[in-house]
């Protein structure tokens, strides 16, 4: 087997921040989280929040579920913990480490799902992206270590061992054992990039995401934070808004819940909201996750990121929080808001004989196209509203009485940057998305795109039809080619065979039979 450079050496080429500074940062990070941690009893929600599909027309009549009850002393502990963490944010956020003016893609992976991260890297490059990729990794199998050291560098992708990030902190204090949902916030914080596109390992870009960060491109230029919607209406407990600082509770129809498999951050502008999201996740499994979802669909980290931005904006408007901006770049850099993508996601799957239909993936929109479509809809609304006319002169007997004045104000585009409730003014319009730029991401929440498990029937990577023939993962290929101008699924198989059929991969027992099965399926389905 060829010599492999240690991951530490490879990572050193990517992370140019001084190791001592990073060590000190992580000690401070976990110290501040530990000192302000929630000491209330674990949150107990007796029932399950309703799974209501989010549509402004139906969500408007849905009351916010109020299933969570806390004892007075526990509520006080939440309130004090949250307030203490927010109070320290201006100082804490002012030295969040990152390499200024850098942009890249970040994901996380471990021994159980590294094959998904391989697919993500391959599809990102096929889509045309040239952004560097950082993969925060936990324990890895030997074959994955080989991929990290010998194959990923060819794709400008770097595996970063988690212990490199917070090794000093773990020597300084006892750290909790992080669960899968908690890794996302840690990965974004740990990344050396200033501008981050975070993708779950099972989320594949099928169009080039690089233009999201182009100079002047909206909505990133004006906000620095982009989130993507899920299918359901919010089930966040009213208690959350109380303990977060007695904030106004938004109506259920204000926005859909978040689908946090895709996040876009400018860590300079949103250092404080990112760290608040990290606080929610640090205290997530027993406290904030059930509070933010009340056991509604997809409970986990999904609501922590956008809610952090909403909370700090709400506190700023109340005059009790001053956002730290002293270190930001003058001009565009001081603009701050958030954009929650308005185009609702859609599902793709395949028909299988026994299960009839299996959901494979969620399709999420290109945020640049989404912004363009919403702004076009706002312009249409403006054209239907007559702005107030100047006060007329007293009526004369010749012209008769004046017409009543229209006082309805047109929607303001800037309001969309910090308050999505204005969506109600355009929700019933058909957003005219450009079909050539509509979908950008395939989030494989149903069947994971992990070719290392292709010989495992339980993975459902491979399925057969009524005549015993192999089926495509995404059905088609006509709709795929019509949508993207190329057979994206075929490209994924070809590039994956280029990795798993290399001679140096054949010696790993867990990959036995993978290359042969891939070639068998490819020969029947894609040739």
Automatic annotation (TrEMBL):
User: What pathway does this protein act in?
Assistant: Protein modification; protein glycosylation
Q: Under the GO molecular function aspect, what terms does this record hold?
A: alpha-1,2-mannosyltransferase activity
Q: Which InterPro entries match?
A: Alpha_mannosyltransferase, Nucleotide-diphossugar_trans
Q: Which UniProt keywords apply?
A: Glycosyltransferase, Golgi apparatus, Membrane, Signal-anchor, Transferase, Transmembrane, Transmembrane helix
Q: Name one Pfam family in it.
A: Mannosyl_trans3
One Gene Ontology cellular component annotation? Golgi membrane
**Which compartments is it annotated to reside in?**
Golgi apparatus membrane
The organism's place on the tree of life at top rank: Eukaryota
Record's bilayer topology term: Single-pass type II membrane protein
Entry similarity comment: Belongs to the MNN1/MNT family.
Q: What is this protein called?
A: Mannosyltransferase putative-domain-containing protein
Give the species: Staphylotrichum tortipilum
| Lineage, broadest ranks | Eukaryota, Fungi, Dikarya, Ascomycota, Pezizomycotina
